[in-house]
Amino acid sequence: MATVSPAAERPEPGALPRAALLVGAAILVLAVASFVGARYGLLLAIGLGFGIVLEGFRFGFAGPWRRLIRERDPAATVAQLVSIGLVALAAFPLLATHGQELIGAHAPVGFAMIGGAFVFGACMQIVMGCGSGTLVNAGSGNAVSLLALPFFAIGSFFGADHLLWWTSLGTAPTVALSGTTGLIVTLAGLAAVSAFLWWRAAPEQRVIPRRLWLAAICLAALAIANLVVAGQPWGVVYGLGLWAAKGATALGADLSASSFWGTEANMERVGASLLTDVTSLTNLGIVAGAALVAAWRAGLGAGIPQLPARAWVATVIAGFLLGYSSRLAFGCNVGAFFSGISTGSLHGWVWFAAAFGGAFYGIKLRPILGLEPRT
Amino acid sequence: MKTRLIVVSIALVGLATMTLADLAASGAPDIYGQPPIIALGSGQASGGAHCAALPQ
């Protein structure tokens, strides 16, 4: 059974410590912009924004799905769909008019993709953290997420390494909606799912708090900025796998024979600074942004949960599976669900359905694995 | 008492160490050889380092 030590009583930081936090973040961004490149500084700032929005508004993916399933509370899940719709409103015309400079999160549907999304959905409920959530939680002091994070990266590395074998089991051609018709179909799909969730909701839960509206709008603005600046949609797991690939290389591994890491483009990225990799920068920014908010709130005095050994073992395994499965699924809740749907990829919709199915089992497994009390 | 401050400190120090070690191994990026600040309107193709992309 999980027990949490009582939170230490701490006063909120004064104006000076808070100003120091902002100055520190600005110095980081300026340093990267000055010594690496202006685009990379801007991407780090966007990543900081993601972290600040997700932690500041307490907006996520795993928690809202859990509340939807257990309490028939659709508010935060509908807010996710609203945010995706807002991004689609900008992304579809941008991709249609600037297809040479911008790419969508387009990937094929296949057996491994569906299975990967299902496993990811289960594991993100076990550790209560998805792709972005694990980064945010690690940055705000969650010990379970901090432990899961390196294994997430290692899993992502191996999942990418084995990706072509898995896709060879059966993969359909990539289907991506585009243009005005594609946008209308996407918005209609999001509206239909939202209406269904609203209809199935408990009557007292049929309200979306202002906090979630603001979070949805801010997240959409940052995701659009990510697309415009980086030329590609918001993603998480490529960067994590790259970190592990760099670690493997540093330990003497030769990745040239890998069907994924051995390609020219990936070998080049493994050899280049991670400060020039889009998803690495936004991932680092998410952790730092979440830490900034946690320090701003003086929310770091709470105790670390006392969990049984099997819970920590489960965290390691689930962390690895989060990384591995998200590569087979062509993304996590961010790269596949959020960015896939908002840029027209069919695999984003299939990911949503499969991961949501997996979430049911993940919720059932959490108490069995000692990550929450049995009821 | 062990608090969340310890967890955050480990996360930030760990990531900073990884970044600096990587920077030392890969060498300083060529600041003058970097892409334009914004991809939109740059005329350059995206790098494609995204989790939805198949290896090319």
Automatic annotation (TrEMBL), chain A:
GO terms for cellular component: plasma membrane. InterPro entries: Sulf_transp_TsuA/YedE (IPR007272). Keywords: Cell inner membrane, Cell membrane, Membrane, Transmembrane, Transmembrane helix, Transport. The keyword Membrane applies. This is Uncharacterized protein. It comes from Roseivivax sediminis. The keyword Cell membrane applies. It is found in: Cell inner membrane. Belongs to the TsuA/YedE (TC 9.B.102) family. It is a multi-pass membrane protein. The chain crosses the membrane at residues 19-36, 42-63, 75-96, 108-131, 143-165, 177-199, 211-230, 281-299, 311-330, 336-361.
TrEMBL record, chain B:
Keywords: Signal. Residues 1-24 form the signal peptide. This is Uncharacterized protein. It comes from Roseivivax sediminis.
